[in-house]
C-alpha cells in the first residue's frame, strides 16, 4: 500500500485485549449472548446474528465487574478461522465473547471507526492478518494485531473516505438484498405449490430414505493431498443451489477413484451440508471430477423426484426446521445420517415438479442478472477502496 500518510500500528491506536475464559460447561441456552468468531463474522457481514449460545446474567455481571465487557465504540475482530472480520459494538449491545477467538479493540485516541473497518477489508491489512496465521486453522493473535500497520490520515480525511466507501458499500448491500428477495420469492412459490410436510402438505409425504436411492456422506479420512489435481471440497463450498469449486485442496486421480468407487458423484446428485453450517443443498449440475469431506451428505434421488425439486425441498424452511430439531452437539452441531434419512418432504406428481422446474428456471434467470449487477457494484467498491487507501481518492 503506497500512500503519503504516516503508518501507525494498531497497538499504538488501540488497546487490544481478549476475554476471560468461559468454559463450555458454563454455556447456557438462554441469557446473555456469548459470541465466538463465527458470530462476529455474521455481525460484520449483516449486522445481526441468530445466536444459540449464552451465559447466565449473573456470570456476565461478574465478568463485567472483574474483567470488563464490550462497550459501545469497541471493535470486535474475529481471530480464528475467518480472520479480520470486525463489528463495532452498538449502544444497545450486551454480550460476552470467547477468548482467543475474538479480539477487542478499544480506541485510545480519536479515530473514525468507519475508516478503520474499511481498512480491515483491504488486501494490505488482510495480508498482514493472515501472514503467519497458521496453515490449518488461521489465528490472529494479540501480539500480531498490535504490530499490524495501517495508513492513518488526519481525522477529517478518515471521515471523508469512510463516507464515500459507505455509499459504495450501500449499493453493494442493495444488490445483495435484491438477490435475497428473489430467494424469498422462490421459497414462497415452493410453499404455495407444495405446502409444508408437517402442517399443510399438498401431496404425499415421504421420508428422504423413501425417495432417494442412496444417502451417504463424504470421506471420513483425511486424504493424501496433492499440489494439483481433483478439487476437494469442504462444507463452505456448498451454498443453497451453488457448488463452488474454489479450493486450495486437491487429491490425485488415483485417490479420487478410490474414494468414489462405491458411490460415484453424478449429475443430478444433491449435496447437503450436515455439520456446522448445516442445511445448505445444491444439485450437481455439471459432469466433473471432485470429492468432498464427511461434513457434506450426498443424496441420490430416485425416479420419483426431480433433482431440481429435491434441491428446493432440501433448501425449504420446512426442511430446515426439521433439521434444527434433529441436530446434536453444541460447539459443532451435526445432523447424523440416520436423522437426515428420516426428514420428511412432500412428494408431488412429476407433472407438478416439472411445473416448478420451469418457474425455478425463470427465477434463477433473474437471480443471475442480479448477480451480474452485484459483481459490477463489487468492482466499483474495490476500485474506490484501492484509490482511497493509496491516497488518490
Describe this structure in words.
By secondary structure, this protein is of the alpha+beta class. It has 3 domains: 7-152, Adenine-n6-DNA-methyltransferase TaqI, Chain A, domain 2 (Alpha-Beta Complex); 154-199 and 349-393, Helix Hairpins (Orthogonal Bundle), CATH 1.10.287; 204-347, DNA methylase specificity domains (Adenine-n6-DNA-methyltransferase TaqI, Chain A, domain 2, Alpha-Beta Complex). The chain is built from 13 helices and 22 strands. Strands 2-8-5-6 form a 4-stranded antiparallel beta sheet. The chain has a 4-stranded antiparallel beta sheet with strand order 13-21-18-19. It has a 3-stranded mixed beta sheet with strand order 4-3-7. Strand 15 (238-239) and strand 16 form a beta hairpin. Helix 4 packs across helix 7 (155-194) and helix 7 (155-194) runs antiparallel to helix 13. The longest helix is centred in the middle third of the chain and has 40 residues, at 155-194. It is globular, with a radius of gyration of 23 Å. The two termini are 14 Å apart. The relative contact order is 0.12. The model has no long low-confidence stretch (mean pLDDT 91).
Q: In order across it, which strands form the biggest sheet? A: 2-8-5-6
Classified by CATH, the class of the largest domain is Alpha Beta
What is the share of helical residues? 40-55%
State the separation between the terminal residues, measured CA to CA: 14 Å
Query: Mean of the pLDDT scores?
Result: 91
State the domain count. Answer: 3
